[in-house]
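Q: Please design a sequence for this.
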């Protein structure tokens, strides 16, 4: 018996269907590795709304920047996820983040009526709410917020602060944007505006209003907490988990705190 008389064993053993199956396995494995490689990261859409200085939108290019954006971009990079961040009016961003798959939203307050609407990734921004009035007005200073119900207040549509105050018995004049609430305040058509300790004065200055006229009439500790990055319920759970892990590592490393320490005024905590 000589070996040159034996049939080539690969041809004899592997039938055509088996060969095709093996080839398919190699293709699928290669495709999986291609999708997970750094050069081919998964892509998600992240919506936000102008919230300066936390979220600042360039008028020329619509480029989104600010410390909250820096946090989100960093965790996207660390999780190897390509994130397309766009700024929209709050009501539109809120609706998109509920209806569209692989879509996230920030900075959003987490409360009981929203709990089941999203997959909550984690906190990405501090938030300290005050009731602002103008110096020289009849609104008292240093009082409890609940004692100011007799005054007119301007609030943004779908905004957690305005909805909270309305539910507490305030007469809220709802308008489409945070900028519109300030226009009502400075025009004398509203007595109060609820806003973040850092963001509201920044907005007023950007609108060329005299920031020195603003005064804090009351703090609202019930609304002062960190704001979240949240995903639509139809977002891939794997994406949510990767972003959660990346955010946890960012805070553990101290980078999160450093980003906010550069932006917050003295005395305002980052978490």
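A: Design:
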């Amino acid at each position: 018996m000589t070996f040159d008389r034996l049939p080539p064993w690969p041809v004899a053993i592997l039938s055509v269907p088996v060969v095709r199956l093996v080839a398919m396995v190699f293709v699928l494995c290669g495709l999986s590795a291609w999708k997970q490689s750094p050069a081919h990261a998964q892509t998600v859409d992240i919506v936000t709304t102008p919230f300066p200085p936390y979220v600042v939108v360039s008028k020329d290019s619509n480029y989104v920047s600010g410390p909250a954006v820096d946090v989100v971009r960093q965790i996207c990079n660390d999780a190897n996820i390509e994130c397309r961040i766009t700024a929209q009016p709050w009501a539109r961003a809120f609706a998109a983040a509920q209806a569209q798959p692989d879509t996230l939203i920030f900075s959003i307050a987490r409360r009981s009526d929203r709990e089941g609407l999203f997959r909550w990734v984690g906190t990405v921004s501090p938030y300290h709410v005050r009731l602002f009035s103008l110096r020289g007005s009849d609104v008292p200073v240093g009082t409890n917020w609940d004692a100011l119900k007799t005054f007119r207040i301007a609030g943004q549509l779908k905004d957690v602060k305005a909805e909270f105050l309305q539910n507490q018995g305030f007469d809220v004049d709802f308008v489409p944007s945070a900028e519109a609430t300030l226009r009502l305040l400075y025009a004398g058509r509203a007595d109060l505006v609820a806003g973040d300790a850092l963001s509201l004065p920044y907005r007023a200055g950007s609108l060329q209003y005299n920031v020195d006229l603003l005064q804090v009439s009351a703090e609202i500790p019930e609304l002062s907490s960190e704001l979240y990055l949240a995903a639509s319920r139809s977002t891939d759970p794997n994406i949510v988990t990767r972003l959660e892990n990346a955010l946890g590592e960012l805070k553990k490393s101290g980078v999160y705190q450093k980003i906010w320490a550069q932006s917050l005024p003295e005395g305002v905590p980052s978490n």
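Q: Thanks. Anything notable?
A: The CA atoms of residues 153 and 172 lie 5 Å apart. Residues 129-223 form a domain with the D-Maltodextrin-Binding Protein; domain 2 fold (CATH 3.40.190.10).
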